[in-house]
Amino acid sequence: MIVKELSFENFRNLENNTVFPSDGINVIYGDNAQGKTNILECLWLFTGNRSFRGAKENELIKFDNAFSKIHLKFEAREREQEIRLMIKGGNRFIELNGISKRYISEIIGSFCCVVFSPNHLTLIKNGPDERRRFIDAAICQIKPSYSSILSDYKTIITSRNALLKDIKEHSELMDMLDIWDEKLAVQGALVARERIAYIKNFSKYCSEFYTGISKGSEKIEISYKLSFGDEVTEDTSKLKAMLSDKLIKAQQSDIYQGYTGYGPHRDDLVVTIDSKNARNFASQGQQRSAVLAMKLAEASVLKAESGEQPVILLDDVLSELDYKRQDYLLNELSDKQVFITCCESEIMTKLKEGNKALFYINSGRVTPTEIE
Ligand SMILES: Nc1ncnc2c1ncn2[C@@H]1O[C@H](COP(=O)(O)OP(=O)(O)OP(=O)(O)O)[C@@H](O)[C@H]1O
Ligand SMILES: [Mg+2]
Prior knowledge:
372 residues, alpha/beta, Rossmann fold, 2 domains, six-stranded antiparallel beta sheet, six-stranded mixed beta sheet, 42% helix, binds adenosine-5'-triphosphate, binds magnesium ion
């Protein structure tokens, strides 16, 4: 997927303009609060998702204006395509290749990006929730049927948890628990199997990227950790047997807590750097490198599955990275289309010429700049 042309009108603080990026690395640089992240946010909206900053529709429209229009021309599936998006009155109106769509979700999958923003460091820093969400969202992109597997699982957990609370008052409901345990074990095995299969593939790419970023000086390992057993297998019947066994043994403690203690909703993704858990021991730069490698790996899996390389958006990724790591991002990813924002002007000296473009942004005005 290649962005050929991006136009924006009344979008955030950006001065109305059309930008023609390079097919490789695009560096957007400027001081703080000039509009760098706004450009990435604008590109991201064409994926059909909500802003990665969690912005509401009206916040995207330039102050004191009634609407914003953005337009993207891109190449995907070997043809030129375009998406037009208008934001007005709290709504988004969308057109894909000249055909207007009723729901924004109808364009999901047409234009794909992965985005790194400093907020995503929580992927390493925070608890397992965020990492589970990351895997689930990544799988949904390549296998839409996974979202119903997951939502069925969540429904079962909700029902089982409600039953656990009811049993405290009505012990005659105990028989029902075995029925829900069976359902949960079947559905939980399906969720775990999909995640394990995804991580097997994903972790290989992640290691390759991390080795590149750290120039081979550190090793990352990503593994799936089951909450209900040690055998991380793609065999659904084994997963089901393990979960079933745990659920039955934990019935009394689950009733006591009113909560299901075992299952994929308690699993985790363990990230280690040189065999140490990244959450507890990694430095700022290592955490940043790890999240970056994860985002790049997510894009590679998507490419392997769909045949299309997603566009990579890297917001404010260079700070806290040493020269070697910055060099990797600026000069060794040019087989992909990347948009990367940064503040320093010395970026010019780090960029080697090639498949890349430099844009300077000042008070929302984007100006293409020569690489010296
Ligand atoms: N709806 C809007 N209308 C006009 N200006 C806006 C709107 N929303 C945000 N802005 C302004 O856009 C400016 C630039 O925001 P942006 O987040 O893109 O900056 P940045 O260049 O990424 O800065 P930093 O380096 O600090 O991350 C902010 O000063 C903000 O006040
Ligand atoms: Mg920013």
